[in-house]
Amino acid sequence: MLTRRIMLQSVAGAMLGMSLQRVVEGAPHDASSIDELNHWIHALQRNSNDLSENRKTPLQWQETMDQIYGNTPLEPLRTHLGFPQLAGKILDKMPAERRELFHPISLVRPDDPEKERRPEPHLALITKVAHVRKGFSIPPHGHSNMVSAFLCLSGEFEVRLYDRLDDREKNLVVRQTVEAPSAGPGTWSSISDYRDNVHWLTAKSDDCFLFTTKLINIEPDIPLNGRINIDIRSAQSLGSRTFLAPKITGQQAAKLY
Which element (helix H / strand E) includes 229? Predict the structure, then answer.
């Protein structure tokens, strides 16, 4: 168990699982915190390289991401991103009817002499900042041949995670691992094909923004599927927090969640 992990409590009792955690907030953005941020971004890049070059498995990438996000210098990161201006830019470009929007960013270290906005190469770490409107969700969905990790930059989310136990033609069999009704800045979650594959994040405030990282096409024998949407609300309970959830289209998911 990581010494910096702090488990979130649910309203009714203990949280299920250990995948949603809280990071340690950083100091003001002085010289020392810049060094800390450089180290943190380098760790993100090194971990993604280890996965893309087969030095780590997807599950090992995910476990390392939990350690990296657990040591995020949150305020220096927000400062480095120019978060207030970036948030305003995302809101300005987000159509009124959209409930979620993922905005690509190029994460460069403060000491990068070029600071160019370069396109992400194949199998490089893809970084984005996402906004979810209050009362709406990133709908419950799983992935195939992809890893990702979300870090809350601001706002309050309800977060539910599930292990994917079986992928059937019209359904997923999932088991709930995390239920956190109040996840704020500095909390995070990660997913892979091997742990907590399905996630469902609901915005509870107007300022819900996430920093996201992902890699795709990491295993040549597994098909890539960006989102496998399911309707967990109409799922059949199989007992022991396990559900048979129907697959739905992205359009259906946007309407329902």
Answer: strand 225-229
Q: Which residues have a Cβ under 8 Å from the Cβ of 2 and sit 6 or more positions away?
A: 21, 66, 67, 70
| Residue 238 tokens, joined | 């199989």
The pTM (predicted TM-score) of the whole model is 0.86
Closest CA to 50 of 32, 62, 36, 40: 62
Contact predicate 66/2, CB 8 Å = yes
Task: Kindly give the pairing relationship between strand 126-132 and strand 100-105.
Answer: antiparallel
Q: Is the dihedral of CA 156, 126, 42, 162 positive or negative?
A: positive
What is the layout of strands, in order, in the sheet containing 187-191?
A: 21-22, 187-191, 146-154, 209-216, 126-132, 100-105
pLDDT tens column, 124-148: 789 999 999 999 999 999 999 999 9
Distance CA 244, CA 187 (A): 28
For every residue of 165-179, DSSP letters joined together read: EEE-SSEEEEEEEEE
Domains, in order of start, for the chain: 21-107+121-256 (2.60.120.10)
Six-digit token string for 82: 């120019």
CB atoms within 10 A of CB 120: 13
**What's the pLDDT tens digit per position in 4-54?**
232 332 333 333 443 466 665 544 457 788 889 999 999 999 999 999 999
